[in-house]
Structures are given as structure tokens and as C-alpha cells.
Amino acid sequence: MVSNKFLTALAVGLPAIQAAVPEIAGFTLTWSDDFVGTANSLPNTANWIIDNGTSYPGGPANWGTGEIQTYTSNVNNLKLDGNGALAITAIKNTAGAWTSARIETQRANFVAAAGGKMRIQASLNLPVVGTNGIGYWPAFWTLGAAYRGNYQNWPSIGEFDILENVNGINKVWGVMHCGTSPGGPCKEKDGLGGNRECPGTTCQGNFHKYTLEVDRSATPEAVRWFVDDTLFWQVTQDDLPADVWTQAVHEPHFILMNLAIGGEFPNNNYGSTTPLATTVSGASFQAEYIAIFSLPAAAVGLSLLSTVPTIDPAIPLANQSSESSENSATVIPGAFVVEWETDMADAPGFYQSLGLEVEHRLDLKYQLFKGASFRIVNGSNDVSNDISVLIAARPEVKSIWPVRMVTIPTAKPLYVGKTRTTTSGQFVGVDKRQTEEPDTYTPHVMTQVDKLRAEGYTGKGIRIGIVDSGVDYTHPALGGCFGEGCLVSYGWDLTGDNYFPPNSPEPDADPYDGCIGHGTHVAGIIAAQANELGFTGAAPDVTIGAYRAWGCNSLTTNDILLDAFNAAFEDGSDIISCSAGQYTGWANDPWAIAASRIAAKGVSVIVAPGNSGRSGMFLSASPATGFKVTAAGSVDNIITPLLLTACSYTVNNATGISEPFGFISGGPEFAENITLPLWSVSNKSDSANDACSPLPDSTPDLSSRIVLLRVADTSECYSSTQATNVAAKGGKYLLFYSQSNFSIATIYAYSDGIIGVGTVTPAQGATWINLLNQGSDIKIHLVDPAAADIRYEAVTNDVSGDLTSLTTAWGPTWEIVSKPQFTAPGGNILSTWPMVMGEYSVLSGTSMSTPLIAAVFALVGQARGTTDPVELRNVISSTSRARPWFDGATVHGILAPVPQQGSGVVQAYDAAHAKTIPSVSEISFNDTENLVAQHTFSIRNTGGDAVIYKLGHTKAATAYTFASGSRSASQFPNPTVDDWAELSFSTETISISAGSSAEVTVKVVPPRNVNATQLPVYSGLITIEADNGETHSIPYIGVAGSMKETPTFLEGPEHGTFLGYFNNPTAPNTTFTIPRPGTTPPGSVEYPSIQASLHFGTQMARADVVAISETGLPTTAFFDIDSIGFLSGFPEPWVVRRNYRLGFTGELADGTVVPEGTYKIVFSGLRVFGDRGKREDWDFAETVPFVIQYID
């Protein structure tokens, strides 16, 4: 057996590059670049042309836009950062001249097929320029392929500006150029465009997802612009002449990314010439990936505009409508966390003994973890295995891990209040309840918290440590203070206000959250005090500890998270709540190990498992994967809380009598107070196509009316078409009403003449239609949203309410441990928000269910008089309310799979008063090869009377991991099969006397009529019905197939593992002429690139370099492979399914530079439950031979 010390040492090479390119359900990835490569090198020239100078040869000067910079291929302006991102940097020299960079794809054949769709998508971070960004003009865009070599045929060839931004403004512009200039159908040179602020966080300093969709699957065809999956602009085929549309949309394009300085757009926006003398130099435009996806005509109708979260990274744990799914976790070169072997180890002495220059990061002097984190300053520029092995071999060192930078994208509220700068901004529209009145807050009703609260249980005396973004303790609903005697009474800022990895943190004593909001929302779910919106937290009398583990840039590191967890433990927290993690699926991750240790010491550790539910099974996040750690799944709220702009209306000019209503501001936003009569496009409240066609000639002049129309079915038309047709009759102001409560959303309906857009509820729209049909006159009194009150309303969720959230992460772990344990409302949750950011907001995800479950632990613990995490987890699990299987469209007559919902929705009252306690919270029968065919558990009767129990079995849906004929994990909804396990019990009834317990043995026969190669996961509930009226259950899971017989990956380009770039395999014996490692690249360089697609988890991934020609280097035998060393970052233990894109620079992981010659790469993965000493338990794939020559 290999020691843990050795395994952890293996993980610390240069990080294997993590593919940031997501999947989109139904679409095929046709081209992408995730910007993997050596730090300070240029992007891959197989993909990109690097433009130089101030124009194309023979093209318009200053690139036709008036921009003033010179584009270069210098790495100061254009480079890979070594962590999977591209940076374009604008620099001003001492003479005042600017340089920057512009790249365009080699390929110029990107086009949507007739009847199909194409999406161009990128994760981009705009330059952080503060108030000194005048003149900055970053852009991500396309040009028609016919422009190349002509350079005089713009704009007829078509241009799509997917993202433009100027002058550091927090907005994204989307623009289409076409036809002729000036003027023409696209109103050149401005083009047809719309804009909006970036959702949730600023465009600058935060990665957001920018998408262009070309849709040729319906009539009219359309081009749509999205930011973070939010539609903000579109142009349809009906908007342009047929020949113009055909030339711009049906012909192929190439893609560009650049950072310009000065020019027409920034000048016009600023109102004067740019840049200024004060414009900052050195800001960068960054890209994590650029990708093109296609959907052929035959597959149209299968896709949704919601990306599947990336498989491997760190996560914010809320669903795609509230928190970003783009994220990353990368190694900080040369930085390590070590755990000491003994208490006597000393960090300064250890550093001195290494003989290396060391930068200290953190002392980790805790009861359960004694160690330190540090960074080697004068070692290798990468995390070479020779350094890590040197450290691991020291007698003081028990374990070693790399320090990983964790990006936790900030929350994006579905609805948010506003910061009140005057006394006029109030929250209205809710009946304020006294605290002694019944609790009707729906998440509490769904979980029986209301019943415990009615009995006086409030969590008093329980301490909950929240590891998150900090808490805005100045919020009146969160106590208004920090320190002893306050609601938020203890905690720490583990990062410091200006923390930015890889720098060392600068902790301080103030865990205030005024820039992220996530932790403030979490704290309100647990313990909000009575407030003007009429709700409280589930356990308002607990004592909160706030541990700020990431700062305003949403970046942290695993050593800080280890620090935070251990600090919360040692500060006396009875419960730790954390709504963050990293997708691993393994319980052996170091963060999960730390959480497991704390849980084993008597603290309930509640962690969000993630929101990867659309990506299939085996994707729970660490540290929720830890043993004895409670993973908190999510169900959707039975209502949707709305925070609306408060307005009113009158009927038949009734004096002094007005009715309140609220609307969601859209785009463009109303910008003034307006009182106008209401006019409806249709007299039917269920119309599917209001204003999808030009309005009739009988339509009155709409310029002095507010137009009411129902959001059209997308099969009929889009909101921009509706707006265009209303504007044709003079309309300026639109109030949409949604088709259902489930679809209430912000509407963007940009069209010439439209200057105000909003959305009201379906009920409000129906009320007005009814009044208008009765002949009533309705006058709408709109208030400028900037000065309006916020109206709180709640509408029924009649689609997914009380059902398991589609985005909640599925287990089990790779060790087949059941995750999640149970669920609570996490979809559409109203809670507190930082005062400076709006005071209250609505968020969704397991981030929200986690703190509610933590509060339930507090209430049940108070009621039962114990904080024992095992007893609480067992009794909460056994009393939970299982929910039926909901596949996103249909509610089926069978329970949802246990790896999706655990035991179901927690029931606090039943758990608090249960007299029956099972000895386990769940059971795993493992897989068929390692079948544990029987389990024995005990039932304890804590009541005063004997109880007779009846054992039974309720089946849940059996779900396949893989679709038929596929080796890639199935996306949600996983295919199910009508076959289930058979259970039998040592006794079907048992009588247990008061205060006693008895054992029961359960045996399983796994389902037989299943396809084992699709790896079916079966599950259900062992039911325990008591004659005292109690009903309990124990969830179980098993795999009706072999984990070890499931390949980690398959060899060959068709399976994603080969030498080459994306879908382009490299020919055998291709020569790569590259700079010798340690020298500066002369320009663009093409390195050997290896792709490997892991379809399943692996205990260990290796990438061995094998010399085919004579090198003189020593070799190490790995079975029949003579390895001269590893690619940087390998071997890598405990790997989730993912894609690798690896470049080979000629340098091995230990720093050895290979001589010129012929080589191949052998990629291997140890199967789940495999024996590392057996070749048959490994999967292998080798590349074709390739030749390395060095530039002299």
C-alpha cells in the first residue's frame, strides 16, 4: 500500500490544466481554446492569428475605428498566464504611445447551419481600471469571412459585437453591423445594439459569460446576445431586408478579441477625445475560454440556454439563475500546505532547514491540524516534484498538499432590493407580523420549523460558525453590531480587505461583508431578526460566528479555508455551515479530510454539495464529500418571493382610491415618473402571440399610452419583435405580464422608440385585462425605479415547488457514500443582503438550503438537549419527507433517486419529538463486485412505552450513470429503468421496550434487468412504521454494476484522448520546433498538445513521457512503460471526471529538460476501486510519436 504521505506528495506538480469549456445540453462543441500553456507564452498559433500594427495591409487606417494603439505580439501585451487564461494588456510607454494586442481565429468558417443553431461563448474579465479607464475599449466580436483579403467591404459582410465595453463603465454592449455605411438598415456606424449592466457583479474584475446565439431553427431567424445566460438584446430576420440578413447571418465568420485604446466608441461615449493623461496603463482583458457550439437542425428543440457547470473547479453553491457556474481552482506555483508529524515542529526552523528562500503564509496551529502554509521563493518557477518530494521526505512532515487558488464567483440575485439614500425608499406591500404570531414563512412551513418556533424553540445557546464571504452585521435584521452580546458575536476575517492570491492573506478581526453578499444572505436564513419584510431566520436566537474566507474579488485558497474551518471549530462552534466547495466526488480531498475530522469531534458540519445537478451523478463537491459531513441538497420554494418597483393604478379616475402593484424593471428601464392610461394589445389574458405581427391599422396612437402585452411564446416571437411592432404605432412604454409565476423575469425589449419596459405578475395582467374588458379606464402611475419604494410580493410556484431542485448536485461519492443526506428549501429564498447592496435579495441553490439545515440542527438540538452530530443527523434523516421524481417536465409516481434527494425534505418538528432513533442515517450496498449484501442497524426506543415497529421498503427511481451506447456521463435527467432492488429483513416486525434498542438485518438483491455497463444506481427507503404514530426511514443506495470495470477513459480521438488540438489530431512524427525551456519564445510557438477526456473518476492519473529515440536519461518502469518522467502536474490523485488539455514544453515535472528527439506520451488512469499494483486495473492511452527540436 502507498502511504498517504506519498499520495499527497504526488499531487503537487504543476497543475494539470483544467478545461474551462463547459458543456451545453444538446449542443456539440465544434471549436474552443481554454488558453492552456506555459506562463508568458503566446496563444496557440494553430488557433490564432496575432495582428500587428495599426491596420490590415491595404485596410483602413487605425483599424477603421480611430483607435490609437499599436498592436504587437510582445508577451507584455499578449500572453498566457500559465493558469488557463489569456491576458491582453494595454501599455503606455514613457513617450505616451500605447501598445496592446488583437487576435483572430485562424478558422473563418463559423456559421449556423440551416435549420440549426450556433453559439459563440466566452468567459471574460474586463480590465480593472476604476475611474481611470477613459479610452479603454475591450471587445469580443466576429467579422464575416469575406472581409479577409478585401478589407473594404464592411459592414456588408456582417459583424457581431458579442461584447463591447468602453471607458470602464459597468455595462456590456451587444451590437450587429450590416448593410451599408453610413445609415443603412443597421443604422451605421452605430449599428443595432442594446446594453445592460453585468448581472450580480461588475463586468470589471469578474469573469462573466458572454454568448451570441445565431438561431436558424425557427421563423423568423434571430441573433441573440446574452450575459450570464440573461438575454439582453436580439435582432430578428424581420428587422432587416432579406439580402442583408442572408449576407450577415448565413455566411461564415471569424472571431476576434482585442483591447483598443481610444477611437470612435469611447470618444462618443465620453464626449471628447480619449484616452486622457490620467488613463491607467497596464490593465488587462482576460479570457478563460472561447468556444463555439453547434446544434444541427435534427437536434433543435433539445437544448436549453443554461450551461452545464464545469466538472472540476471550485464552486459557489447556488443555481445558474442566481450564482455563476464559471469558476476555477488552480495551484499557486511553489506554494504548499504541510501537516506536521509531531507537535514539536516549528515553521521557522523548518524553513531554515530547507535551505531555500521561503515566504510564510499561515500558521495552522490547531487541535485537529498542526501545520503551516508557505511559498518557495527561490525554487523552481513551477511546483516541481523534486521540491515537493524533498519536503514530503522531511521527518517533520506528515502530509503535503499544493496551495490551490479557489475562485468562488459571486452571487447573482434573482431579485434584489436597493440601497436607501433617502427616507422615501421603503419596503412595502407586506403585512408586518409581530414575532409572537405564527410563522408563515414558507421555507419554515415546508420544514416544520414553524411548529418548533411555535413551541418556543429558537436555537438559543447554540453557536453556528459560518464560513463564507463574511456578514454585514450592520444590517438591522442581523443585530446591527459585532462582538460580545451581538447576534454576530465572534469570527474573523481570514483574508484581509485587500487580499488577492497568490499574495499572502492579511487577516484582521473584522468579518464585515459589504461587497459579495453571499455570507449575509446565509446569515439571514439562519438568524434574521424581525424585519419590515415580515420574516425571520429559522433560529433567530443562535449565536453566529462569521469567518470571512474570501474577499471582494471572490478569490481564496485552500489553506485559508482549512484555517477558517479549524478556527470555527476551536472557537466553540456547535455547528459549522459552509456554502462553498470544489467538485471532486472523492472523500480524500484535503479540505474534505479536515471537515471530516471536525465532524468526528462532535461538531455538525453542514456543507453545500453544489449545483452540478444537470451534469449527472458522482459530482458532489468537497468538503461535502467528507465522511460524517452532512451534504445539504435543495428543493424549490413553494412560492417565489418578488422584490418589485412599487407603483399604483386607478380605475375610472377614482379620486383618492388607488391600487398598489409592482413591476420588475426591464430594458430599457423607466427613467421618470409617468401617469398614462393603460392599453392592451389583446383582450385575452392567455394570448400566446401579442404583437408578434404588425398591429392593425385600427390601433390608436400609442405614444401617450402604456401598452400591456403578454410575454409571447418563443415559438411565436421574441420580446424585441413585440416591442418593434408596438413602437411602429408610436408606443414608448411597455408592461409585459408573464405566462406563469414560474417564468416571471426581467424583459429586455430594445427597439427604436421604446424608452421604458417592465414586467408584472400574471395575476396583475389578468386583473387589468378583465377590467379593460368591462370597459374600465385604467391609469398607471409609474415611479422612477431610482426613487421608488420596493414592493414585496409572493407568487405560488406551481411548477417545481416542494420538488428537488434540478440543479442540486447528485451523489454518490466515488466511494459510493450517499450524498446528499437530505434537502431543504434552497430555490428562490428571500433573505438579508448587505445594506450597501440593497438590504434584501432572493437567491437560489444549495447555498441557501445549507444554512437552513444548519438552523434545523440548532432547533432540533435545542429541543432534544443535545448537539451530538450523529444523533441529530440520524434522527433528522429518518424523519425527512421524501419527494417524488421530477425530471424537469413530469412528476412521476416514484420517489426521486436517493443520490439526488437523500432522505428528502427535513422535518424539524418530527425530528425534535421523535422517540425512535435509528443507528444510521443511510446505508450503502456498494457495487456488485464489492457487494455488501447485508447490513445490520439498530432501532432505539427512547420513549416511555414499548413500541412495535414494522419494517418495509419504498423504492426510488433507478438511474443510469451513462446513456445507452455512451461512455460520457449522462446529463440531467438521467435515464431511468423500471427495475429495483429487492430487500428482505431479519424480521418484519419487532417490539422494543421503553429505553431499549434492537438490531435488524437487511439483505439486498440488486436489480437484475438492467444494463450493468450503463452503471445503474439503485436506491430507496427502508421504512420503519411505529405503532405510536411515528414513521421513519433509512435511505439506501447501491450500484448494479462494477465501478472497477468502468473505464476511466477510452483511447483515440473519437473518445477525446490523443495528441492534437481540440478535434484535430496531430499526424505521427510531426516535428515541433520550440524554444528550449528557460528561454524566451521568439514569437508564436506551437507546442505538442495532449488531450485526455476522463469520463469517470480515477484514483490516480499519470502522464508519462516515453523516449523513442536515445536520450541518455534514466528511466523508471511503470509496468511495461519505460518512463523518463511526468508531464508537469502528474501524477494527480483523486481526480473527478474532466477534460485535460496539456502542453509539453520539453521540461518534465522534476525540472529535467529532455534532449531533442522523438517521444510519446502515455496517459493512464487507475480505475475506481482498482489496485495500483495491477496493470489490468489501469486504463492506458498513448499518443502518436512526435519530434522535439529546439530553436537555436
From TrEMBL:
- Output one GO MF annotation: hydrolase activity, hydrolyzing O-glycosyl compounds
Offer one Pfam family short name for this entry: Peptidase_S8
Q: Name one GO biological process term.
A: carbohydrate metabolic process
Q: Which UniProt keywords apply?
A: Hydrolase, Protease, Serine protease, Signal
The record ties this protein, via InterPro entries, to: Beta-glucanase-like, C5a/SBT2-like_Fn3, ConA-like_dom_sf, Peptidase_S8/S53_dom, Peptidase_S8/S53_dom_sf, Peptidase_S8_Asp-AS, Peptidase_S8_His-AS, Peptidase_S8_Ser-AS
Its GO CC terms are: membrane
Catalytic residues as annotated in Swiss-Prot or TrEMBL:
468, 518, 847
Family classification: Belongs to the peptidase S8 family.
- State the protein's name: Minor extracellular protease vpr
